[in-house]
Design brief:
The chain is α+β, with helices and mostly antiparallel strands. It has helices at residues 7-23, 42-57, 76-88, 97-110, 113-119, 240-255, 260-271, 285-313, 321-344, 360-369, 380-391; strands at residues 130-133, 149-153, 156-163, 174-180, 191-196, 204-209, 218-229, 233-234, 275-276, 279-280. It has eleven helices and ten strands. The relative contact order is 0.09.
């Protein structure tokens, strides 16, 4: 396998790096973007929306989208290079990530020409911010058990029910959602994929869910006789599960995540200045061995991503790497957070910078937030089932 980039790809990397250096506002930079993937307040949200608009104007949003929909039709490697440089620059996750990465590609595959014409042009510049209405109180990992109803009455679907863990709903303009349109059908049938044009429609009630670190990423969303026009049905009626799986495939593609190596490198820097019982943390064998083991595991994850990339470049169907990375990456994040709290002690529980640990709030967020990634996007248990049944041939 050739791990080198071509001169053209390195030139593209240099172009991206230079543009970000010139244009990325310093007040938007974040150490761990995934921990603040949703803006903490309206002011920050609007700054990030303006940043997305500037990025889109320069042609950096939706790189892999077809040119006819406003993208560059860039290669997969170019998209990966851009993502590497974007996160190296500590840039924030875009407020329109659900539209750019999930709904947009799904509409290209399943949407009507009118839907593509109406919605796609407004996604890249962040004119419309979308949220995803999938999970429900009794239908998270078992999504097909959803109970939100959509009854077709004339030219409208009338929607009643509840969604939960809806990221960014407090800022979203619109929602793509799943609802049961045939309650008597088997659970993977009778589901339809709908587009809610206005999150402020009569009958839509968004209620915040504040997590233990104080962030408001999630929401409950209730629907009381909400009317959605019939033309906002994506794909065939009662066959929305097929459309939903398309969206989930795109979501899985961005859920493996990275960023662990930067956390480990920062902990190594701290270990050279932080003291434990009067000795530099680096002098303790358990600290050095722990950091070395984490870097080994980060490299293993890196090459697993490269194996997945190789399959995609060869046009092969997805392999087990997606579930491996989701399972391994989320569990690794929990162990790194545990190590940080062990090495830093009480400093890992401080919400303010200190002389000993200037970025103490970062480690507080890791300790409080890391566990959620073993649940979001498919629990560790679900990933183990997928690997056991589909890759190892184990019984259900």
């Amino acid at each position: 396998m050739d791990f080198e980039f071509t001169p053209q790809q390195e030139a593209f990397r240099a172009e991206v790096r230079a543009w970000l250096h010139r244009n990325l506002p310093s007040d938007l930079c974040i150490d761990d973007p995934m921990d603040e993937r949703i803006a903490p307040n309206r002011e920050v949200f609007e700054k990030r929306r303006a940043w997305q608009r500037e990025l889109a104007g320069a042609g950096w949003v939706g790189l892999s989208w077809p040119k006819e929909y406003g993208g560059r039709q860039a290669s997969l490697l170019e998209q990966i290079i851009f993502d590497e440089e974007y996160f190296r620059a500590r840039a924030p996750i875009l407020p329109g990530y659900s539209g750019v990465g999930l709904l947009g590609p799904t509409l290209m595959q399943w949407g009507s020409e009118e839907q593509k014409k109406t919605y796609l042009p407004r996604i890249l510049p962040g004119d419309d911010i979308w949220c995803q209405g999938y999970s429900e109180p009794g239908a998270g990992s078992d999504l097909a058990s959803l109970q939100t109803r959509a009854e077709l009455k004339g030219d409208y679907f009338v929607v009643n029910g509840q969604k939960v863990w809806t990221s960014g709903a407090q800022f979203a303009d619109k929602m793509f959602l799943l609802a049961r349109t045939d309650p008597d059908a088997p659970k993977h049938k009778g589901i339809s994929y709908l587009l809610l044009d206005d999150m402020h429609s009569p009958g839509v009630d968004v209620r915040p869910l504040v997590v233990m670190n104080g962030h408001h990423h999630f929401n409950e969303v209730f629907f009381y006789n909400v009317r959605i026009p019939r033309e906002n049905l994506v794909g065939p009626m009662n066959e929305g599960w097929k459309v939903a799986v398309t969206t989930l495939a795109f979501e899985r593609g961005i859920a493996g995540g990275g960023g662990h190596s930067s956390q480990v490198r920062r902990l190594a820097e701290l270990a050279h200045r932080f003291t434990i019982a009067g000795r530099q943390a680096w002098d303790y064998e358990w600290v050095r061995q722990g950091l070395a083991q984490f870097m080994i595991e980060c490299e293993a994850a890196k090459y697993t991503r490269l194996r997945s990339l190789t399959r995609r470049l060869k046009g092969l169907p997805p392999g087990p790497e997606g579930s491996i990375l989701k399972l391994y990456g989320s569990e690794l994040g929990v162990r790194i957070a545990g190590f940080a709290s062990e090495m830093l002690g009480g400093y890992a529980l401080l919400g303010e910078a200190t002389e000993a640990v200037p970025d103490a709030p970062r480690w507080l967020q890791r300790v409080l937030s890391s566990r959620q990634y073993t649940i979001a996007g498919g629990t560790s248990e679900i990933q183990k089932n997928i690997l056991g049944e589909r890759q190892l041939g184990l019984p259900k």
